Amino acid sequence: MKKIRLALCQINPIVGDIEGNFSKILSFKEKAVKEKADIIVFPELILTGYTPEDLLFYPSFIKKANEALNKLIENVKDFVMILGLPVKEEDLYNSAVILAEQKVIDTYHKIYLPNYSVFDEMRYFKSGKRASVYEYSGVLFGVNICEDIFHPTLPSPIQASSGAELIINISASPFYAGKFEKKLRMLSTRAYDMGVFIAYLNTVGGQDEIVFDGRSMVISPSGEIITMGKAFEEDFIVVDLDLEEVTRVRMREPKIRWESEFERAEIIKISGEQKKSLAVQSLQPSAFSLKILSEEEEIFKALKTGLRDYVEKNGFSRVCLGLSGGIDSSFVALVATDALGSDRVTGVFMPSRYTSRESKEDVYELVKNLGIELIEISIDEIFEEYLRRLADTFKGLPEDTTEENIQSRIRGNILMAISNKFGWLVITTGNKSEMAVGYATLYGDMAGGFAVIKDVYKTQVYRVAKWASRDRIPERIFKKPPSAELRPGQTDQDTLPPYEILDEILKRHIEKCMSEEEIVEQGFDRDTVRKVLRMVKKAEFKRRQSPPGIKISPVSLGKDWRFPITNRFGE
Fold first, then answer.
1. Which listed residue, 111, 131, 456, 540, has the most CB atoms within 10 A of its CB?
2. What residues form the annotated binding site?
3. How far apart are CA 140 and CA 134, in angstroms?
4. How far is Cα 316 from Cα 318, in angstroms, rounded to an integer?
């Protein structure tokens, strides 16, 4: 029986922390050695973290990654190690190095460089042109990187038709809600079509706007999930693969024979003896139960991961946020508490003459339920001073949104003063619906360092908050009409369509690139659609000045959204 033991190291790197990433790799390597793993695998660009962006332009950065690789080589003996890093040859490549017997056996360069959504790899890397197969103790395996496995023609089918029984794909695949199930179907189909085991290793953790969800997996030649890593957590996965299954499947369903007519991959032999002792029992498909997370759980875990890693990796000890008694700030406080612990979250309640009694009660109940610190600072006297100082300048003019925005900017100033004094990170509480149409105050409620729910529509906020609350968010917050409370009797719907309608219009425009006419054809009121799209366009200058926020949708209002501020199209 031909078996091999595979160790997948699903770890959370820090971009640019080459020494720290190196140490973590060594730690996981030691665990894999104790488990007598034959092949030990680490994710895409794991030495540098994904994605280093313009750090890749600095020769010293590439040199440091290469120095770390040279140190790693000394630690690789009696097993094969595969890991990702940028490699400089005649050009720069996104590469996987295959190490064994204290040397580099081969370097695979990523073929398909994604250049959409948050990806910008063509800015940095040259595409590879070669796919190889490696033979180790009688086992044939291929290696490729992330996007490569998504393509049905190259390189995986060439590797499989050249004899590979196992395809190892190292990845840094960012999360958005619903993507995992698509990826799962794709990988299962690839394994079944090629009649190979696929070991897909994804990184995990938050990096600025993007979150990696892990959920690495091994799939059998019949397309069934054998095992899977944790979602949004580091994990260490060891599995024994019986490669005879590949032979059995291919004999009965020889779907890749046609590939033999095309280019063949080079087979590179790796010396060394396979481990004889298999201490870990093989995991069979029947022993594994696949759990698909609900959209609410996925989003909540992504938000927690993104906030936690932004805070931890950037060295903040604490976060603070404005609490209004509304659903957005309450939900963000809940996310922060679950991500960091109640002892690292401070809520700041800044009531005015327009703040309702119910809002104050809800803030105090929320703070009690979450166990977080509360600072209360009234803005009334400050607001009154603003009005007095501006009275001559504004003489004869009616009050309007100017006076409303002054209140918001006073609150933003207070939050930033607290941040400045104590070194805390201000997290903002604006949602995607508001950011899309500009229903937010520049230098007011947009002031802060990190926008936790920037990519979460208002209707999603309600759903996810309800799922995560466990009675910690007061029930009245879910029921009362949303309001900024900047004037008497104000509600969001004085300015905006109902969120159920607004969000559906925004999804069609932002994520599906639909025009006014196309959205109207789907049954929406023309005047409403026109008003919403006009607001989206006018708010572009605000979005450019907003803090980064966590991506949880296919098209976020960050790196995914690149529109000119000066733009007359559609007018």
1. 456
2. 116, 173, 179, 322-329, 405, 429, 434, 542
3. 5
4. 6
Instruction: Classify residue 100 by burial, with Cβ atoms within 10 Å: 0-12, 13-18, 19+.
Output: buried
Please tell me whether residues 174 and 323 are part of one structural domain.
no
pLDDT digits (tens, 9 = 90+) for 476-522: 999 999 998 899 989 989 899 999 999 999 999 999 999 999 999 99
* 381 and 508 assigned to the same domain: no
Residue type at 115? N
pLDDT of 61 > 80? The answer is yes
The verdict on whether 255 is a catalytic residue reads: no
Q: What is d(CA 539, CA 430) in angstroms, rounded to the nearest whole number? A: 14
pLDDT digits (tens, 9 = 90+) for 84-99: 999 999 999 999 999 9
Q: The tokens of 8 are what?
A: 């997948």
272 shares a domain with 361: no
Does residue 24 have an active-site annotation?
no
Binding annotation for L-glutamine: 116, 173, 179
Q: Which of 445, 210, 385, 421 minimizes the C-alpha distance to 305?
A: 210
Task: Quote the domain boundaries for residue 341.
Answer: 296-491+539-543
Evaluate whether 157 touches 259 at the Cβ level (below 8 Å).
yes
pTM: 0.94
Q: Is the pLDDT of residue 256 over 80?
A: no
User: Any catalytic annotation for residue 146?
Assistant: yes
User: Does residue 155 have a cis bond before it (omega within 30 degrees)?
Assistant: yes
